[in-house]
Amino acid sequence: MMTKRKKTEPCGPMKIGLFVKPQREAVQKADEFERWLATRGITVVRKEGVPSNRKMPLDSMDFAPRDLFCVFVLGGDGTFLSAARWIGDFPIPVIGVKFGEVGFLAETVEGALFSAAEAILKKEFTTMPRMRLLVRVLRDGEEIVREPVLNDIVINKGALARLARIKTSINDRYLTTFRADGLIVSTPTGSTGYSLAAGGPIIHPTVPGIVITPICPFTLTNRPIIVPDSVCIELKLDKSASDIMLTFDGQAGLEITEKDTIIVRKGCQPIHMITLPDRHYFDVLKTKLRWSGERI
């Protein structure tokens, strides 16, 4: 469901967040954009993302000020996912500006940044809520992690580890034990990420479902499955498991063992993504995937 931004005046000066990929081109454009916003009397709260080759500890992320009017993300999908963690549960609209390679999460591109910003400052935009997952990790019955994710969680074995055995239950009913290199649980938004590369389906962001995709399953009958977003998914490792990692949106992770229970369900707080006029999901999809000869 699209939500039109109400034309109400903020209390005090408008404050905008700027989340920037640590890349020279993105940083230079952010500097230019920050100066442009300053000439309009807008306060900027700037945050730099982490390099793509670094994983952050789960408890290392601070959070955005809750009174931001919106957040501009200058970077690729990884930067956008970091920005979503920074926003947390606050209902702050966010827009991605593509500086990465694919940019499924980007709403506009570098060359259109200022025209898009003009429209947003005039409140000429709508927002679309994107479902997030709430992921809990229990160790010996005690909660050690509670993390929202926009794209996916991934259970992955190390390079020298044996196939992982992942016991999977839906609403307390046993489904199967996946024997595979790993397992992905993704939102519709995340269906065009790692899940797609592992053979999972593409799901429109408004479809109320959760995708479970095995990575290189040992048994060919283990196929991706789409379940309703109302279910609770429970995952446990076999007792012989070792060298297994659980990652959250590819941004942070921890090593897990048979002592851990992973519980996944739909989160209460979505991410509110800004949508601009004449921007359509299926046009983006065919362009990014180069269908019908389209180019990125």
Q: What would you say about this model in short?
A:
The protein is α+β, with helices and mostly antiparallel strands. 16% of the residues lie in helices and 38% in strands.
Explained architecture:
This protein has five helices and 20 strands. The chain is α+β, with helices and mostly antiparallel strands and 296 residues long. Residues 6-10 have low confidence and may be disordered.
Structural descriptors:
296 residues; alpha+beta; six-stranded antiparallel beta sheet; 20 strands
Task: Find the count of extended strands (DSSP E, 2+ residues).
Answer: 20
Q: Mind telling me the C-alpha Rg?
A: 20 Å
How far is it from the N-terminal to the C-terminal residue, by CA?
27 Å
What is the string of SSEs from the N terminus onward? EEHEEHEEHEEEEEEEHEEEEEEEH
Q: What share of the residues lie within helices?
A: 10-25%
Averaged pLDDT:
89
Task: Please describe the topology of this protein.
Blueprint: E1 3-4, E2 15-20, H1 24-38, E3 43-48, E4 70-75, H2 77-87, E5 94-98, E6 108-109, H3 113-121, E7 126-130, E8 133-139, E9 142-149, E10 152-157, E11 164-170, E12 173-180, E13 182-186, H4 194-197, E14 209-215, E15 225-228, E16 233-237, E17 244-248, E18 252-256, E19 260-266, E20 271-275, H5 281-288
Parallel strand pairs: 2-3, 2-4, 4-5, 5-6
Antiparallel strand pairs: 1-7, 7-20, 8-9, 8-19, 10-13, 10-17, 11-12, 11-16, 13-14, 14-15, 16-19, 17-18
